[in-house]
Amino acid sequence: MPYLSLLIFVPVLAALIALVIPTRYTRAFPWLTLAATVLQLFIFIAMATHFNPADGLQLSEKKSWISVSLSNWGHLQADYFVAVDGLSFPLVGLSVVIMLIATISSWSVSKSRKGYFILLLILNAAIIGSFCALDFLLFYVFFEFMLLPMFFLIGIWGGPKREYASIKFFLYTLLGSIFILIVMVGLYLSVQPPESSNQVHTFNVLHMQNQENFIPGSVLDATGSGTWRLWAFAILFIGFAIKLPAVPFHTWLPDAHVEAPTAISVILAALLLKIGGYGILRFVYPVFPDGAVYFSDWVAGIGVVSIIYGALNALASKDLKRLIAYSSVSHMGFVLLGIASATTEGIAGAVYQMVSHGIISAMLFLIAGVLYDRTNDRLIENYSGLALPMKHYTAFVLIAFFASLGLPGFSGFIGEVLIFFGAFQSHTLNNLVPFWMPLVATLGLLLGAGYYLWTIQRMFFGPFAIKTMHTELNDLTPREYSMLLPLAILAFLFGILPQLLLNYINPFAENFIGLWFSLGLNANP
Amino acid sequence: MREVISHYGSHLALIIPEVILVIAICVSLFLGLFIKKNKSTLLWFVTGTALLTAFGFIILTWPQKPQEIFAGTLRVDDFSAFFRLLFLTGGFLTLFISLQKESATEYVILIQAIVLGSCLLAMSMHFATVLVSLELVSLSGYVLAGFAFNKQSSEGSMKYFLMGTVATACLVYGVSLIYGISGTLYFSTTQFVDALIASSSALILIAAVLILAALLFKISAVPFHLWAPDVYQSSPTPVVAFLSVVPKLAGIALFIKIVLAFNLFGQAAIDWRMVIAAFSITSIVVGNLSALAQTNPKRMLAYSSIAQAGFLMAGVATLDLAGIRATLLYAAVFLLMNLLTFTALYFFEKWKPLPAMSDFAGLGRVAFIPSLALVIGLIALTGLPPTAGFTAKLLVFSSLWNAWADSGLTLILILFIVGLINTVIALYFYLKIPYYLFLKETPAGTASIKISITGNLLLLILVVVIIWLFLNPGLLMGWINRITFVL
């Protein structure tokens, strides 16, 4: 069974069906989208039974897509090439779950539903496609395909400053993808597959990852002088760091998050940011291990700055959604720190942290959405004592906040602990990350506890008071339950049974590091 | 005598498309004398059929064996056939969207004359034919630019005319210098090349720059772009759609030929790659930065078209086979996406004049298909997937990377990076119209826009073609790859 193609094209098909349904059947669109996402979930479960973590890349499908001669300098070959391994499999699973929950969350959308759900379905396909694509051009196309739906989803269905936020989002991410494109062009023209004789230029990422496939004398040739490779590493890294987002490329994120409708914030935080981290692990590091070694302290440094700066901003945020957005910046900083350490624990921790953050940040944004739906107000200072009227809600807030600040027993803890293991080890093992960096990063944990606990104290404890009362402050509806409960269970499950995920992630991380050792690049002075 | 007739008769057989156009122009002229002003169906039918027949003829004789005709002044080959197909497509689509025009006779004749001139230009091998066909294109263009018959339109037409005349003067002066140096007007003969290599006079440079200036004027590249914004803003939209593709691509076709001629097989005294790259960079940067400040949609597209001229030249700047082939693909895609954008814009304007981009507020909800078409057209012009605009830009930039890797010319690398970064700048102004169309609220009391089914169908077909060329560029590239050049 072509599981991956099914996962990618089921939403496309649903979007096409939605296109022909007349606009007046407004109730059909959410149900159709729900059906598609539930179907995806079943496909994913069926796929999981065929997935063997020890096998590396599998379930691959490959078809020639573009194959044109480029006259005097060879042949351009791009494939429809999808496969999953221990890195992408958990992320694809995360996408399927989050898209399902985002669909449920979108039930309250009332403005032009047809357009909304069609865009949501296209976004769905593009996200899963990005995680599965192993052809750089295919990845790039999926990556760009996310921008336009996202632009409209934020710009049409967003909050008061939506137009500004959507344009800022689009321009920033396009700048990132242009950086990626610059390196992509250079890479495919420098690489040819081992078996080819007549200069076939391939976009196949696996070929790019093997240093022997670089055409001797080409600009990005691994055996060459190397400065261009360092440039390429830096440019490609910045391209993905904008998406991640890492300080100082993060300024689009708070605006986009605050203005986006709840479901879109959830997708943005839980999935789109992950594509940044995924891109670094799939493209930047394996293709340019030399650059990764050279810039390791920069990468770790950017990670640490993101952790601290994001946390400080969260501490100063007056808007609940903005606080959560900055906490995302902080938590994604850990991913960079883990990756920079280039140890098995660090890499595994980075992937774990991405999945965990996907679950927890989705919960956090849903929580912000629940409150906003009732009061149209997100300012923390306007609330106090919410625990009294909304007991169930407060329980979920506590779970999400504690999971996010890294309390043992929740998934966030495992990810961060692994990252710290890796980062501290790196000092003795490969000397890529200076010892003081993880030390400073621990401060981020402290700040995280600070802003969450302070928010709980301000908003939920004390006497009940609220500034503007729009509707009655009901507790969670069954629909909201159905979104929050599965996420809470997942966060808990991955917190107490890390093997559930590590079974998939560890083989990938070991393989990843093994590749480095085989290149002899770990022996850094 | 008979021999001569049969000799040239066989030559005429090779340019049947142009013969058809000449006949159609005469027939249109004749019909114009007799038919009533508002009953011009026959006229449109004759013209449309002529363009389609010419198109079909070129398709049927593809691939064309290179052959020099009329004493070597024209050459039929795949290169010119490719461009002629583009011109005929552009002409046909323009006629199709502007069906209900007043003064139909003059209109169709001028359009056909420009197509004819462009076709001859793409085949020219001699400076005299270049001059004659370029003037046919230009003079008809000046008249067409004033076809709105109001003050602004006349002003635009006048500006176009005055600057165009200077450009022609430059061309003639440059050609006269070249004739003095080389003793020939055939610009792709060995005599021409040998004479220029032998003389190594600085005059060659002056002459070449004068000739290039005339071409840069035609393709509205910086610094010869000043006419474009006024003409685009004031002329009727179908005319702008036409002028922004057919004469421009004719200019590009000639530009490629002339540059390759002056390159002297790489033995020229100066490196033409640097010169073209410099013009390309300035066009892209100036066009895009100026477009940022515009509020009128057509003026914005004028500056965008100046930037696009830069992208069209970028592939030529490599002066190698792959780069020029990428340019041919870009030219084909540019024709489609520019026509799509202007056609969609025209359908909005037929409904109501929209002098500012903010007038598009909320129209996405009342006219979905034209709005979608406009968004796809603009996204394609930006160069984003899933449109052929992306594929074309990818190939152009790939050729630039390779040219840089081979030659180490820093200016080519700068062109590569500037061009790509400019995509982000371009997105900002291209996005303005979609922004108003979909993100702004529809003003109260906006009636639904009625657009004919054929109009919507045309837009959808163009959209599908642009997306299809993205998914499957192999077919078009396959054709282009058979085109050979003398480098």
Your description of this structure?
The complex is a heterodimer of chains A (525) and B (487). By secondary structure, chain A is mainly α. The mean pLDDT of chain A is 90. Chain A has helices at residues 3-20, 28-49, 88-105, 113-132, 136-145, 147-157, 162-190, 205-209, 227-243, 252-259, 262-287, 289-294, 296-316, 320-341, 344-375, 391-405, 411-429, 436-460, 478-496, 499-518, and strands at 58-69, 75-84, 200-202, 383-384, 465-466. Chain A has a domain at 317-525. Chain A has a three-stranded mixed β-sheet with strand order 1-2-3. A two-stranded antiparallel ribbon of chain A has the order 4-5. Chain A is built from 20 helices and five strands. Chain B has a domain at 273-487. With 487 residues, chain B is mainly α. The mean pLDDT of chain B is 90. The chains are: A mainly alpha (525), B mainly alpha (487). Chain A binds chain B through residues 66-73, 76, 112, 137, 140-141, 144-145, 147-148, 151-152, 155-156, 162-163, 166-167, 170-171, 174-175, 178, 181-182, 185-186, 188-189, 218-219, and chain B through 320-322, 325, 365, 379, 384-386, 390-391, 394-395, 397-399, 401-402, 404-405, 416-417, 420-421, 423-424, 427-428, 431, 435, 438-440, 472-474, 477-478, 481.
> Which protein chains are joined by the largest interface, and how many residues does each one contribute?
A-B, 38 and 39 residues
Low-confidence regions of chain A: none
Average pLDDT figure of chain A: 90
Strands in their spatial order, largest beta sheet of chain A: 1-2-3
Radius of gyration of chain B: 22 Å
Uncertain residue segments of chain B? none
The secondary structure category of chain B is mainly alpha
Tell me the total number of β-strands of chain A: 5
Q: Order of SSEs of chain A, N→C? A: HHEEHHHHHEHHHHHHHHEHHHEHH
**Beta strand % of chain A:** 5-15%
- How many helix segments of chain B? 20
* Main beta-sheet strand count, sense and barrel state of chain B: 2 strands, antiparallel
Secondary structure class of chain A reads mainly alpha
Helix share, percent of chain A: 55-70%
Radius of gyration of chain A: 22 Å
User: In percent, how much strand structure appears in the residues of chain B?
Assistant: under 5%
* Secondary-structure element pattern of chain B, one letter each: HHHEEHHHHHHHHHHHHHHHHH
Query: Largest sheet of chain B, order of strands side by side?
Result: 1-2
Number of helices of chain A: 20
Overall geometry of chain B comes to globular
Q: What is the quaternary state of this protein?
A: heterodimer
